[in-house]
Design a protein that fits this description.
Pfam families: Peptidase_M78. By secondary structure, the chain is mainly alpha-helical. The chain contains seven helices and three strands; from the N terminus they run ααβββααααα. Strands 1-3-2 form a three-stranded mixed β-sheet. Strand 2 and strand 3 (55-61) form a beta hairpin. The termini are close together.
């Protein structure tokens, strides 16, 4: 059987190719923000995003590690690209859904399927997670969750 990418995976791959990003070495959130005309700022606050008068902005917590900022950038980018409105004004269940979507987006944006598939990974799970974390500049736990989801998707193709 052949694996067919999800709509999210297609969206992310198309977005990256639109801004000429094809490899993990090109994944730099400031460059991505510049390509998408998004301002990035840093402050001692919880990471967040704003959209006002056609200006898109992501404010990242300045106290986070670079990996955490990269992950937060992807999370907030989802809100800008795929959600609309003010989260403070929507029902809690809908806010929960949007947060789940943004977390899923971040996993796929920081570690895109079309790049992950090209990696030579070992059968030793911890080593594979370390390779992913280092290659994509994310935290170990983040890489572990992405690997688990990717393996589950592959298993569904073969056993589903």
């Amino acid at each position: 059987m052949i694996y067919v990418q999800t709509h999210l995976e297609d969206f992310i791959e198309n977005l990256y190719k639109k801004i000429s990003i094809y490899s993990p070495q090109q994944l730099n959130f400031q460059d991505i923000a510049d390509s998408l005309n998004i301002l990035v700022d840093y402050a001692d606050v919880t990471s967040r995003c704003y959209e006002q008068d056609d200006i898109l902005m992501i404010v990242l917590n300045e106290n986070l590690s670079f990996a955490e900022q990269w992950q937060d950038f992807a999370h907030e980018l989802c809100h800008l690209l795929r959600h609309s409105g003010n989260q403070r004004k929507i029902p809690p269940a809908f806010r929960t859904l949007q947060e789940w979507q943004a977390n899923s987006f971040a996993l796929h944006f920081c570690i895109p399927t079309f790049m992950l598939e090209k990696l030579e990974l070992t059968d030793h799970k911890q080593a594979a997670i370390a390779i992913i974390a280092q290659t994509f500049g994310v935290e170990y736990g983040f890489a572990e969750e992405r690997l688990e989801r990717w393996l589950l998707q592959r298993a569904m193709v073969y056993y589903g």
